[in-house]
Amino acid sequence: MAPFGTEDRATAAGEPAGPPHGGRRKVARYAVPATVVGVAAATIGIVPALASSGDPDLPAISAQQLIEKIAASDVQQFSGTVRVNTDLGLPDLGGLAGGLGGGAAGGGDGSSADPSAKVTELATGSHTLRVAADGPDRQKVSVLEDAAEYSLIHHGKDVWGYDSKSNEVFHTTADDAGRSAPGKDKPGKDGHGKGERGAENFTGTPKDFAEQALKAAGPTTSVTVDGTAQVAGRDAYKLVIKPKQSGTTVGAISIAVDAGTGVPLKFTLTPKSGGAAVVDVGFTQVSFAKPAASTFDFTPPKGAKVTEGGDRAHQGKGDGPLKGGLPEHLLPTPGGEPGRGPDGLKVIGEGWSAIAAFDTGAKGGVPSGSEVGGDLGGFLDSLGDKVSGKFGKGTVFSTRLVNALITDDGKVYVGAVTKDALVEAADAGK
After folding, report:
1. Phi, psi dihedrals of residue 108, rounded to the nearest 5°
2. Nearest-5° angle of CA 405, CA 411, CA 414?
3. 130 — phi, psi (to 5°)?
4. Is 83's pLDDT higher than 50?
5. Which helix (H) or strand (E) element contains residue 143?
6. Does residue 73 sit in helix, strand or coil?
7. At what angle do helices 21-31 and 63-72 cross, to 10 degrees?
8. Torsion of CA 309, 311, 316, 318, to 10 degrees
9. pLDDT at residue 382, rounded to an integer
10. Domains in the chain and their CATH numbers?
């Protein structure tokens, strides 16, 4: 089906057609200011996750109406299989994977079942997830591996991680104050969707990613409906989001939205540089029936090593810009407001070209690979480029989507922007 008509483009100019102003307030929770993905947890592309069996013939719909359909969707019960492909352009971590994973290899004081140990594993390559949710208090995500499985289960106040390969269990408790329905951001004090969702509510589905992208709907963004598709056996509309600004590394985002429920079924982010997608997350099979209650039951297997992680509400506390863990705006949310950020973190610019900046207080800059030596030294050299400007000297670490400049006097500039944009921001901040 050909792209829908010109009314879609009214949204791109920030002037949605159709519903009255009051009806748009609910959409603003999702379409305007979780994480550009707390570095990523969230990031992903390449082999199309879902096969298409032709373009279904669906009633025409405007971009604004489709965004409202996503915002109005209140599906809290589902199960299915999700295919995740990630291509950030990172070099092979080799022997570093275990060390960077915080115990992923089972060494040291960490637990291989700790969810944080899985971040580096999901940041590259292809993965199959089995997901299920039944309201705000029950979710389960299982990462299927060769002859093994890792599961993260949220059931009431309990959050369990289980690694079948090592037979290790990680247990912690959910923070009631930060919990909300699956896929929903808890509104901030200003009424916008400032995500306070903990890991226990991240279901690993396209909706988690789509809600971040929808924050970009505004004057810095073009939003259109580009026909239809069939995803995981369901009819869907294709919503396309493109930055209008220069300097960003984001090319386009495509979201396949279920025509019946409004649930995003597939999310694909392609870089401006072209080539394979950076992020491709999509259902290969999905059901919106209530999952069996036993899906969320978990008892540590006999002989398993159990590590207690304590209450999430008390983890990661400290001073400075990283207080409470990775800051929400470490990667600026497209459409966010300039100057907003926690504990000394400053957001420079707006929209897709926004850059987060903070001062680590560390002097001396990033050591070279020869100074560090070993696998870590090689890793640093493969990512880092030495740069200089009015700000002085520093090192830019690059991926296909996110770039970060660390200056020799300890300042950090990071965003989904080009290396030149980072240097210009550092020069302007000097």
Report:
1. 65, -155
2. 40
3. -110, 120
4. yes
5. strand 138-145
6. coil
7. 70
8. -130
9. 64
10. 8-314 (2.50.20.10), 346-429 (3.30.310)
Sequence letter at residue 383: L
Name the H helices within 53-205. Answer: 63-72, 96-100, 119-122
Tokens of residue 344, six digits: 């000394």
Task: State the pLDDT at residue 38.
Answer: 29
Residues 6+ apart with CB under 8 A from 244: 12, 219, 220, 221, 222
- Per-residue pLDDT tens for 134-171? 999 999 999 998 888 999 999 999 999 999 999 999 99
Q: Fill in the amino acid letter for 36.
A: V
Does the pLDDT value for residue 49 go beyond 60?
no
Backbone angles phi, psi at 415, to 5 degrees: 180, 175
Tally of CB atoms within 10 A around 336? 24
Q: Is pLDDT of 15 > 90?
A: no
Q: How far is CA 391 from CA 312, 381, 410, in A?
A: 38, 22, 11
C-alpha–C-alpha distance, residues 162 and 254, integer Å:
33
pLDDT surpasses 80 at 303: yes
Q: Give this prediction's pTM.
A: 0.72
Residue 313 phi, psi (nearest 5) = -65, -20
Rounded average pLDDT over 341-349: 74
- Give the whole-angstrom CA distance, residue 209 versus residue 314: 26
Banded pLDDT at 293 (limits 50, 70, 90):
very high
Q: What separation, in Å, do the N-terminal and C-terminal C-alpha atoms of the chain show? A: 51
Cα distance between residue 18 and residue 239, in whole Å:
17
The pairs formed by 391-394 with CB atoms below 8 angstroms and a separation of 24 or more are: 391/423, 391/426, 391/427, 391/429, 391/430, 392/430, 393/365, 394/365, 394/366, 394/426
The CB density around residue 361, as the number of other CB atoms within 10 Å, is 10
